[in-house]
Each structure stands twice: as C-alpha cells, then as structure tokens.
Design brief:
Blueprint (H helix, E strand, L loop, with lengths): L1 H63 L5 H66 L2 H7 L3 H74 L3 H28 L24 E3 L4 E2 L4 E2 L7 E4 L5 E3 L4 E8 H4 L7 E7 L3 E11 L6 E2 L4 E5 L9 E8 L3 E8 L5 E8 L4 E2 L1 H4 L5
Antiparallel strand pairs: 1-4, 2-3, 4-11, 5-10, 6-7, 6-9, 7-8, 8-10, 8-11, 11-14, 12-13
Helix pairs in contact: 1-2, 2-4
C-alpha cells in the first residue's frame, strides 16, 4: 500500500532526526551543567566578598567615631581602597556570571531553533500527505479499491495525519513562545552586562581618585600629625567663613514660597539602597518644612565611598560641579543639582564621581553618581538638600575664605530650603 509506505518513510525520517539531535542535546546538557557549576562557584565567591566588605565597613564606622587624625585619615583611605577593590571583584564576578548566563541562553535559543526547524519539516511532510489524500475523494478511493480493509486504513491514515499536524502546530507554538522568552531574557542579560561593565569602569576611576587623595594628603602634611591638624584648622576656618558668606548672601534673596505649588509628603524615593541617616534637617518651623538660618540645611546619609546614588524622582539635571577645584574643603565638593517634575529640587553633595550632564533627563531610581568624601566632610557620606524647584539655581559667589576665588554651586533663598524627611518615605 502506498500510504503505508509513505508513513514508513515518515517514521524513518523522524527516527533519523532524533538520532541526529540526541547527541547534540547530550552535549548541550553537559555544557549547561558546566556553566551552572561556574555560576554557583562565583556566587559563593561573591558571598565571601560581601562578608569581607561588611568587615571593612565596620572598621570604617569605628574609625568615624575616633578623633580626626592623620593616622585615622590614612587608615580610612586604605580601608576604602580595600573595600573598593572588593567591590570591583564582586562586579567582575557578576560580569562573569552574566556572560555564562548569556552563553546558556544562547545555547537554549539554538536548541529551540533546531526543534522549530524539525517541527516545521514535520508539518510540511504531513501537509504533503494530506494534500495527496485530499486529491482523491473518498468515493474515488472506494470505487478504485475492492479491499475495504485497505480503504479504512487509508481513512485512518488521513485522520492520523490531521491529528499529527495539529500536534506539531501546538508544539511549535509552545517552542516559539519559549524561544521568544529566551531571547527577551538574553536581551535583559546583555543590558545588565553593559550596566555592570559601566559600574566596573566607575569603580576603577574612584579607586584611582582614592590613591591620588592619599598622595595629596601625604604631600601636604609631610606625614606629620601637627601639619595635618594645622591643615584641618585652616579648612574649618575657611569652611566657617564661606558658610557665613553664603548665609549672608542667601538671606538677602527674596522668594515668595507658595505652599500650593509644593507636592504632598512622601513623593520622593530614597537616594540610596541602604538608608542610615546620620544627621537630620536643622531647626525647623512651619510644620517642619522650612529651613532656619544657621542650622543644617539638609539630611546626611551614611554612605561609603563608591556607593551608587540615585535620582529621587523624574527630572532634569540643572547643573553639577566641584567646589574643591575653586576652594578646597569648604563646601559640597562634587555635587549635582536636579530639578524634579513635581515642584522640588535637590542637591547631592560630597560625591566621588558624577555620572550625568547638564540638561540630561533622569528617571526615578537612575544612578546619577557615587558617594564620596569631597568638599568639607568629616567622613564619607551623602548630603541631600531639598528646595522649592524655582527658588534654586547654580550661582557664583565670591569667596572671602579663598581670596580671589569664586564658588559656583546651588544657591537658594533661605525660606526655600525644605525638610527632606517630609518628602522622603517614612524612616525607621
């Protein structure tokens, strides 16, 4: 019988394909097992490095409680360098893991594409059989044959072909969906890989800055504690003089604060993943929302050097800079000013690295920089000031503390400083 021979050929074809694909699947399984083993090992390494980083952080916290001295400052720089090196190692291992994951996903994609190709061939073969069967009507088949057993076998074969086509199409849809999921996951992994590589480059820049800062301090002090204390006193005097100049200037600025243009509380997200507040907004009045002259004009967060800093809402970068270039150790150091769509603005101060440009649009949760210890800072931390958006801008202020120098930084009328804690999530 012709149909019987056709199905015998189809069975032989499918058997050949299975014999061809099975060794490939075995090799693929071995490859996946090897990749997963490497991923697991690096996850163990990452966990160990995280414990090492936690130890460095505890040591840094203990140093922060000690009196500021040349020895403690150098120790802090060394600990920060070790911690940053461990951070770099973690990032590199995450990059390795992501590369392994991409390889695994690529293998899965190749495997699924092979299955789709086989299913497609099977469907085409079945369609050809269906076409052959339907070329002759059932009546013609009956009239052309005297053997009714043969006739029913042909009809059964036709029904079998239809069933196989439906099964192949259903399987094809399933495999296609899995293939699309794999491709989406691969794209996400590649984006994550790009982000990790950028982070690695940033961490390397920060560790270079750390080395430069240590050399600078040793050159300034000639490794003498008395010289270091003299340097500190000079820095404090310059900082106090600058802050007085700034308050005098800002107190003369006129701004009518319209509370109706300010958003409700809790509209901002935290600028850090791990939140620990070391100093709150200073003296407050009018519902704990206004800044009083002479008090702390923002909130300080504990943040070791190199901690990613994120935008607290959607907005535009209105400016950035480094006051240390103009007058070292008296103000924000490296800073970013962002004006948000919700009517607020913020300054991030004492950063180690800036990742944005003027006029750049940023989204809530996007990394805009990394914390540091620049400007006037008694230890690594992040300073955040919040203002009414229209009241703050980058302005240039002549400095009496550094004669002949001018400082460019965010400046606002005193009554436009707002309590960050009112707009941030509830702090526990």
């Amino acid at each position: 019988m012709k149909l019987y021979h056709d199905y015998k050929k189809q069975f032989n074809f499918c058997l050949f394909v299975l014999l061809l694909v099975f060794p490939m699947l075995f090799i693929y399984a071995q490859s996946v097992e090897d990749l997963n083993s490497k991923i697991n090992q690096r996850n163990i390494d990452i966990a160990n490095l995280e414990k090492e980083i936690a130890l460095y952080q505890n040591q840094l916290d203990d140093l922060g409680k000690q009196k500021n001295s040349l020895n403690s400052t150098l120790q802090e720089l060394d600990l920060n360098k070790k911690k940053l090196s461990a951070d770099i190692s973690i990032t590199q291992k995450k990059i390795d893991n992501t590369n392994y994951k991409i390889k695994e996903l690529t293998s899965q994609i190749g495997d699924k594409e092979s299955i789709i190709s086989i299913d497609t061939e099977s469907i085409l073969l079945n369609l050809r059989k269906t076409n052959e069967l339907e070329m002759n009507s059932i009546l013609e088949t009956i009239l052309s044959k005297n053997d009714f057993t043969s006739i029913w076998n042909d009809i059964d074969n036709m029904l079998f072909v239809h069933k196989k086509i439906k099964e192949n199409i259903a399987e094809l849809k399933t495999i296609k969906g899995q293939l699309e999921d794999n491709r989406k996951e691969t794209l996400n992994a590649k984006n994550e890989l790009l982000s990790l590589k950028n982070k690695l480059a940033d961490q390397k820049k920060i560790i270079e800055q750390n080395t430069i800062e240590k050399k600078k301090i040793l050159a300034q002090t000639k490794n003498s504690e008395s010289n270091y204390q003299t340097l500190l006193k000079d820095r404090v005097a310059k900082k106090d003089a600058f802050e007085k100049d700034l308050r005098d200037y800002e107190s003369q600025l006129k701004y009518i604060l319209d509370p109706s243009k300010l958003p409700n509380g809790g509209v901002l997200s935290w600028p850090l993943d791990n939140v620990y507040i070391t100093q709150l907004f200073g003296k407050t009045e009018a519902g704990k929302r206004l800044y009083a002259t002479g008090s702390h004009n923002g909130v300080d967060f504990r943040a070791s050097v190199g901690t990613p800093i994120k935008a607290m809402s959607d907005g535009i970068v209105a400016g950035f800079g480094d006051t240390d270039i103009q007058c070292a150790g008296v103000s924000f150091g490296k800073f970013i000013l962002i004006k948000y769509d919700n009517g607020l603005a913020s300054t991030y101060g004492h950063l180690s690295l800036i990742k944005v440009s003027n006029g750049q649009r940023v989204n809530r949760g996007e990394i805009v920089g990394y914390s540091g210890n620049t400007g006037y800072s008694t230890g690594p931390h992040l300073h955040v000031s919040i203002y009414a958006r229209d009241a703050v801008d980058l302005k240039t202020l002549p400095s009496k503390s550094c004669p002949g120098k001018v400082l460019t930084q965010p400046i606002s009328a005193l009554n436009a400083y707002l309590d960050p804690m009112y707009y941030l999530p509830k702090y526990k």
